[in-house]
Design goal:
Elements (H helix, E strand, L loop, with lengths): L1 E3 L7 E3 L3 E2 L3 E2 L2 H5 L4 H8 L6 H15 L6 E12 L2 E4 L8 E5 L9 H8 L3 E8 L2 H12 L3 H27 L2 E3 L18
Antiparallel strand pairs: 1-5, 2-9, 3-5, 4-5, 5-6, 5-8, 6-7
Length: 196
C-alpha cells in the first residue's frame, strides 16, 4: 500500500513547509512546562518531600540558569506512506526521501496506519537543545566522582529538555491550520525518539 494525502484532505495544513528559523527560549518559558512530579518523584526519588524538593530545584536552577542556552527549531514536511515506511518531501514537488520504518504490531498494525486513518498529510518535526555549556558543567560532577550530584542534575536537565520540547511543540502546533479548530488539541500528540 502506498498513498499520499494532499493538504486539507485530512483537515490539516501548515502555514509553511520546510523548517523554521532557530528560536531561543528563556528558562522561565521552559519552566512553564516542567513536570515537577516527574522530576521530584521519578528522577530524584523525593516522594512526599515537596518543600525540600522545591528548595533543591530553586538552588540548582540558580546554579545553572546562566549556562542554559535553550534553542529549538521545527518544520513541516509533506508525507508519503509506503507500507510501514514514512517518506517526506523536503519541499513542494520534490521526490520523497526515506525518513523512517516502523515495526508492524502483532495484529499487523503500524504507526504509519495512523496517518492513513487520520488523513494527516504532514510530518511536523522539532529539535531542541539546552546547549553544551550546561552539559559540560554537569559532566564535571561525574568526572569528580560526585555521582549523586551528577544524577540530580542529569534528572533536572532531562526534565528541562522535555519541558523545552513541550514549549517547542506548542509553538509548532500554532502554525498548523485545522479545518475544524476543535480538533487541534486531539490531533497534535508529540512522539519522541529520545535524546542522544
Amino acid at each position: 500500500k502506498e498513498w499520499e494525502i494532499s493538504p486539507f484532505e485530512g483537515g490539516v495544513d501548515a502555514e509553511f513547509y520546510g523548517h523554521s528559523e532557530v528560536f531561543t527560549a528563556s528558562v522561565s518559558d521552559i519552566l512553564k512546562n516542567l513536570r515537577k512530579i516527574s522530576l521530584f518523584e521519578g528522577r530524584w526519588g523525593m516522594r512526599g518531600e515537596q518543600d525540600a524538593a522545591e528548595r533543591e530545584l530553586e538552588k540548582m536552577l540558580a546554579d545553572i540558569e546562566g549556562k542554559i542556552k535553550a534553542k529549538y527549531i521545527y518544520g513541516f514536511y509533506p508525507v508519503v506512506i509506503k507500507h510501514n515506511e514514512l517518506w517526506v518531501r523536503l519541499h513542494a514537488g520534490a521526490e520523497p526521501v526515506y525518513f523512517a520504518s516502523f515495526p508492524m504490531g502483532k495484529r499487523g498494525e503500524c504507526f504509519t496506519d495512523l496517518y492513513a486513518a487520520s488523513g494527516l498529510s504532514i510530518l511536523p518535526l522539532q529539535v531542541v537543545t539546552l546547549g553544551s555549556d550546561v552539559s559540560e558543567y554537569i559532566s564535571a560532577f561525574f568526572s569528580d566522582d560526585k555521582y549523586s550530584r551528577y544524577y540530580q542534575y542529569h534528572g533536572l536537565l532531562a526534565e528541562l529538555t522535555e519541558a523545552l520540547a513541550g514549549h517547542a511543540h506548542t509553538e509548532a502546533i500554532s502554525k498548523l491550520i485545522f479545518a475544524d479548530s476543535h480538533e487541534k488539541i486531539a490531533r497534535t500528540l508529540r512522539y519522541s525518539f529520545g535524546y542522544p
